[in-house]
């Protein structure tokens, strides 16, 4: 009798919970490629006006300190899908396919009854435009795609060049699929923009928007004396400010002050591509509003990695410096707060568990990330991390960044450059007090008064790496063969 009653109580409790549970939200995931926070209005850009993105932040949650754990396209995209660091998911460079065997949030939502689609730049597996597992509808292209007239593979059914500007076309493709969805099933639309990735070609209507804006090299480009020597070596290369600047400079290296005009043109092009992304966000939001779905949809706007735009004499990404590792992350959801700014450090690997929690779906299992839903809902989570580690492995195809292992705490950043064979580090380390010096202008690593902090952070870095399951033996990386002066292969630029 007792048992019977207990079953009845449990049954009615779960029926009550079912009745009270809100409908599962749709998820609109908008991923930009290489967007730096400094080029988004909501993050303080003085020049790039992004009213639609800013509106998502005003109506939702903006993460002021969101980071990628590896600042490189494919590894970071794989972390966003799996909740794992690059050393665990294995996508260490831009030529490796995401292993289908790894649990991923879109597939988990599909298994939970969601209709799922991916439309746009995938970029895990350079030459493969075939549909990937976990999606009912999959539209992508090979490699980087082109800003104009990309050839698309439409769900493995046919390949077709769709004329027009990439950002507009990919938005059209996303809307086409959204219009086919019915209220019977919640949906996931993952939209992968090409923009604002190099080579920066704005939509014609935005090609001249920033012509009157003067864009000097950042002051930090000329403050390299206390930095490791590789940074001065990089300045003339493919990834330095005196280099070809993604073909905006024809004759290089060029250290003449007047050659800053090439840098200005490059940045103007980059900014222009973001204006079209903002238009796309506006179109998608308007569609959700018109169809009554806005308040039952989680909209996530984010980037896969940051971008250096002249800071420390560098362009591109890969390093552990702030502009390279910071990503925009804005989440609009009726289940979360409105107009909240979260300052705790969140990571790319936190996205998968967070989206699954918002959708009420089962978690992925043992992963590196943690759900920030409580943080975003209440503004605090006493258990939240105060430190994490960054990893990047030297690429022989792009020999402009050493092996990097770095620790970022709420206050400090310590960066070391392992040689790769266990011998002493190849380069001087870096230490920054981010609370006093957020732009990382003064490297404190070699100063005697900071020796104890260096020792403490170096030990903490080793401990954090060990906690992620790595040992000095299993934390494999290539041998750092130094900064190269050659250009990368034209096919992989
Ligand atoms: Ca990227």
Structure description:
A hairpin with a 2-residue loop joins strand 17 and strand 18 (about 410-415). The chain is α/β, with parallel strands linked by helices and about 500 residues long. Helix content is about 25%, strand content about 15%. Mean pLDDT is about 95; it is low at about 5-20. It contains twelve helices and 19 strands. The radius of gyration is 23 Å and the shape is globular. It starts with a helix and ends in a 26-residue tail after the last helix. It binds calcium ion (CA).
SSE blueprint and pairings:
Layout: H1 2-20, E1 26-32, H2 51-59, E2 61-63, E3 66-67, H3 73-82, H4 86-89, H5 105-111, E4 115-120, E5 137-140, E6 151-154, E7 158-161, H6 166-178, E8 187-192, H7 229-234, H8 260-290, E9 297-303, E10 308-309, E11 315-316, H9 322-325, E12 326-327, E13 329-332, E14 340-342, E15 346-347, H10 351-359, H11 373-378, E16 387-392, E17 404-409, E18 412-416, E19 430-433, H12 451-467
Parallel strand pairs: 1-8, 1-9, 2-14, 3-15, 4-5, 4-8
Antiparallel strand pairs: 2-13, 3-12, 5-6, 6-7, 9-13, 10-11, 16-17, 17-18, 18-19
Helix pairs in contact: 6-8
């Amino acid at each position: 009798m007792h048992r019977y009653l207990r079953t009845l109580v449990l049954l009615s409790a779960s029926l009550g919970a079912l009745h009270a549970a809100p409908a599962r939200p749709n998820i609109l995931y908008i991923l930009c490629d290489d967007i730096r926070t400094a080029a988004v209005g909501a993050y303080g850009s003085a020049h790039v006006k992004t009213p639609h993105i800013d509106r998502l932040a005003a109506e939702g949650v903006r993460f002021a300190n969101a980071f990628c754990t590896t600042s490189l396209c494919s590894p970071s995209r794989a972390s966003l899908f799996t909740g794992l660091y690059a050393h665990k998911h294995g996508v260490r460079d831009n030529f490796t396919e995401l292993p289908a065997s790894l649990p991923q949030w879109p597939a988990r939502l599909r298994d939970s009854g969601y209709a799922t689609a991916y439309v746009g730049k995938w970029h895990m597996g350079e030459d493969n435009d075939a549909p990937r597992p976990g999606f009912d509808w999959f539209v992508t292209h090979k490699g980087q795609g082109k800003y104009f007239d990309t050839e698309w593979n439409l769900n493995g059914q046919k390949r077709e060049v769709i004329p027009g500007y990439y950002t507009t076309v990919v938005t059209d493709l996303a809307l086409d699929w959204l219009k086919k969805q019915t209220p019977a099933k919640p949906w996931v639309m993952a939209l992968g923009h090409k923009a604002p990735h190099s080579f920066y070609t704005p939509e014609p209507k935005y090609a001249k928007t920033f012509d009157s804006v003067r864009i000097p090299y950042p002051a930090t480009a000329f403050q390299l004396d206390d930095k490791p020597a590789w940074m001065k070596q990089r300045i003339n290369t493919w990834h330095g400010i005196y280099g070809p600047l993604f073909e905006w400079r024809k004759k290089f290296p060029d250290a003449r002050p007047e050659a800053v005009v090439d840098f200005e043109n490059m940045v103007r092009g980059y900014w222009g591509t973001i204006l079209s992304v903002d238009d796309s966000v506006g179109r998608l939001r308007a569609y959700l509003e018109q169809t009554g779905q806005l308040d039952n949809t989680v909209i996530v706007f984010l980037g896969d990695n940051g971008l250096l735009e002249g800071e420390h004499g560098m362009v591109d990404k890969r390093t552990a410096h702030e502009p390279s590792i910071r990503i925009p992350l804005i989440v609009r959801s009726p289940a979360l707060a409105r107009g909240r700014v979260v300052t705790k450090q969140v990571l790319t690997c936190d996205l998968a568990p967070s989206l699954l929690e918002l959708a009420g779906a089962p978690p992925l299992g043992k992963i590196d990330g943690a759900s920030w839903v409580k943080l975003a809902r209440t503004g605090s989570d006493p258990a939240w991390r105060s430190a994490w580690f960054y990893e990047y492995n030297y690429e022989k195809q792009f020999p402009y960044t050493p092996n990097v292992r770095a620790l970022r705490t709420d206050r400090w950043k310590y960066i070391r450059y392992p040689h790769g064979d266990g011998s002493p580090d190849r380069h001087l380390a870096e230490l920054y007090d981010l609370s006093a010096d957020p732009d990382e202008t003064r490297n404190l690593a070699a100063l005697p008064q900071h020796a104890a902090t260096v020792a403490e952070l170096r030990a903490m870095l080793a401990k954090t790496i060990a906690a992620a399951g790595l040992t000095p033996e299993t934390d494999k990386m290539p041998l750092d063969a130094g900064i190269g002066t050659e250009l990368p292969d034209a096919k992989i630029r």
